[in-house]
């Protein structure tokens, strides 16, 4: 369901900005996200996908939606499902590429995604500045637990859950309920564009979390804010929009 916006000046979350993905069904968004991850090389041939429950939680949809999407992706030659104790859903050994037309909605929303990332940078850098002054030991322990969970994650879905908890805990530590509500709205919209990523890359991202946590523990507000700003700004290059922009430039596309 689309988020209702208050009346007034348009924002990055107005209905017009949401048009592309909001025209896409929940099943097709799952198809598009997995297919796009395959097209961009983020999911490798033969790679096992997390179970349905974990995939649904990571992509913010229901389990029935994931099952339907995977059945269709199997028919399209993107994934293979294998029965038995060691079975599951795997990226096909020779996956068909560019088979999901709904991927176009994600590429169409590229400009909007960059804008959401910028909004998140502003909010999280500010949260870090305040959190460095206000975080108590239980708050720091909460961040440490999230970091440990991400280190131990066995899939991109598990890592994504820990990553969300880390950033939310830091935002809550700033003690600004109205800004927190804005942050949850921005990240909620941004997470709709989340794609699976290789665990090696994600574990590198967790090293940045550790540096942010250390700056917060040292109560170095300027360092914490700078590290978090750079951490989130990296999404401009590492999120699918960065890959898509590079792909377009190589092919000489205008869009």
From TrEMBL:
<dbReference type="Pfam" id="PF07729">
    <property type="entry name" value="FCD"/>
</dbReference>
<keyword id="KW-0805">Transcription regulation</keyword>
<dbReference type="InterPro" id="IPR036390">
    <property type="entry name" value="WH_DNA-bd_sf"/>
</dbReference>
<dbReference type="Pfam" id="PF00392">
    <property type="entry name" value="GntR"/>
</dbReference>
<dbReference type="InterPro" id="IPR036388">
    <property type="entry name" value="WH-like_DNA-bd_sf"/>
</dbReference>
<feature type="domain" description="HTH gntR-type">
    <location>
        <begin position="24"/>
        <end position="94"/>
    </location>
</feature>
<dbReference type="InterPro" id="IPR011711">
    <property type="entry name" value="GntR_C"/>
</dbReference>
<dbReference type="InterPro" id="IPR000524">
    <property type="entry name" value="Tscrpt_reg_HTH_GntR"/>
</dbReference>
<protein>
    <submittedName>
        <fullName>FCD domain-containing protein</fullName>
    </submittedName>
</protein>
<keyword id="KW-0804">Transcription</keyword>
<dbReference type="InterPro" id="IPR008920">
    <property type="entry name" value="TF_FadR/GntR_C"/>
</dbReference>
<dbReference type="GO" id="GO:0003700">
    <property type="term" value="F:DNA-binding transcription factor activity"/>
</dbReference>
<dbReference type="GO" id="GO:0003677">
    <property type="term" value="F:DNA binding"/>
</dbReference>
<keyword id="KW-0238">DNA-binding</keyword>
């Amino acid at each position: 369901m689309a988020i209702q916006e208050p009346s007034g000046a348009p924002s990055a979350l107005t209905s017009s900005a949401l048009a592309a993905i909001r025209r896409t069904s929940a099943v097709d968004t799952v198809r598009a996200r997995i297919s796009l991850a395959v097209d961009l090389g983020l999911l490798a041939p033969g790679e096992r996908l997390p179970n349905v429950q974990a995939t649904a939680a990571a992509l913010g949809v229901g389990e029935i939606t994931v099952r339907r999407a995977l059945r269709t992706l199997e028919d399209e030659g993107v994934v293979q499902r294998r029965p038995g104790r060691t079975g599951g859903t795997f990226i096909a050994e020779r996956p068909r590429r560019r088979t999901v037309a709904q991927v176009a909605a994600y590429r169409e929303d590229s400009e909007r995604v960059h804008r959401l990332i910028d909004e998140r940078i502003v909010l999280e850098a500010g949260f870090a500045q305040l959190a460095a002054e206000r975080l108590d030991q239980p708050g720091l322990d909460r961040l440490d637990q999230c970091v440990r969970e991400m280190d131990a994650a066995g899939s991109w879905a598990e890592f994504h859950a820990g990553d969300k908890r880390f950033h939310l805990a830091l935002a809550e530590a700033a003690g600004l309920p109205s800004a927190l509500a804005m942050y949850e709205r921005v990240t909620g919209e941004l997470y709709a564009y989340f794609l699976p990523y290789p665990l090696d890359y994600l574990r590198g991202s967790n090293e940045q979390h550790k540096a942010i946590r250390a700056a917060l523990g040292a109560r170095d507000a300027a360092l914490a804010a700078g590290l978090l700003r750079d951490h989130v700004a990296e999404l401009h290059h590492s999120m699918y929009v960065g890959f898509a922009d590079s792909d377009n430039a190589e092919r000489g596309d205008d869009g």
